[in-house]
Design goal:
188 residues, mainly alpha, Four Helix Bundle (Hemerythrin (Met), subunit A), 0% strand
C-alpha cells in the first residue's frame, strides 16, 4: 500500500478517526488487534457465534482504522508495516482453524492458513535481508474477502442460516486467488 491516504482513509478521517484521540497511535490499534484475537478465538471455540461474530467484526475493522490513522496522521512506521499484516493473519488464521476447518471445509481452511504462513515467512525473510515488506492492494482485497467469508460463516452458524455457507466458501476461494497474486507481487 502507498504511504499516501486513500479515498477510504479520507472518509474514515472525516468520520470514525475523529473519535480517536490524537495520542492513540496506529501501532496501539494494531496491538489491540493482537490482544483481542484470543478472545475472538475463545468465543468461537465455545460456539458463542453471535458474540464471536460481533467481536470478530470489531477486531477486523481495526485493520482499516490503524492503516487510515497511520496514513492520515503521518505515523507510518516499519513496525506497523510488518506487524499490522501479521495481526491480520493471526486473526484470520485462528478463526479459520477454529471454525472454517471444523464447519466448512478442511482443505479450504488449510489452504488459507498455508498461504498466510508463506506470506508471513516471506515478509520475515525480506526483513532479515533489509527489506520492509508491506501490505499491497492485492493483500488488502484478500484480507477483506477473508473477513467477508468469516462473517458470512459466523452469521450462518449464529442464526442458523446455512444458505450463506456457499457464498462464504466462494469468498475464501477468491481470497486464496488474491493471496497468490499478492505473493507474486511482493517481489521478494
Amino acid at each position: 500500500m502507498s504511504d499516501h491516504p486513500t479515498i477510504i482513509d479520507r472518509f474514515l478521517a472525516r468520520t470514525v478517526l475523529r473519535c480517536i484521540p490524537q495520542r492513540v497511535t496506529p501501532n496501539q490499534v494494531t496491538m489491540v488487534r493482537f490482544l483481542t484475537t484470543p478472545i475472538v478465538l475463545y468465543l468461537l471455540l465455545v460456539e458463542e457465534y453471535q458474540w464471536g461474530l460481533l467481536l470478530f467484526l470489531l477486531v477486523a475493522s481495526t485493520d482499516a482504522i490503524d492503516g487510515a490513522l497511520a496514513r492520515t496522521r503521518n505515523q507510518i512506521t516499519d513496525w506497523g508495516r510488518l506487524y499490522d499484516p501479521l495481526a491480520d493473519k493471526l486473526l484470520i488464521g485462528s478463526v479459520v482453524f477454529a471454525v472454517v476447518v471444523r464447519e466448512l471445509d478442511m482443505v479450504l481452511g488449510l489452504s488459507i492458513v498455508s498461504v498466510e504462513v508463506v506470506i508471513i515467512g516471506l515478509a520475515w525473510y525480506g526483513r532479515a535481508h533489509g527489506r520492509v515488506v508491506q501490505a499491497n492492494a492485492w493483500g488488502k482485497v484478500k484480507m477483506w474477502l477473508q473477513v467477508i467469508g468469516v462473517a458470512l460463516l459466523l452469521l450462518g452458524l449464529a442464526f442458523g442460516v446455512p444458505e450463506v455457507f456457499p457464498v462464504s466458501q466462494a469468498s475464501f476461494v477468491l481470497a486464496i486467488i488474491f493471496a497468490l497474486v499478492s505473493l507474486v507481487t511482493y517481489g521478494i
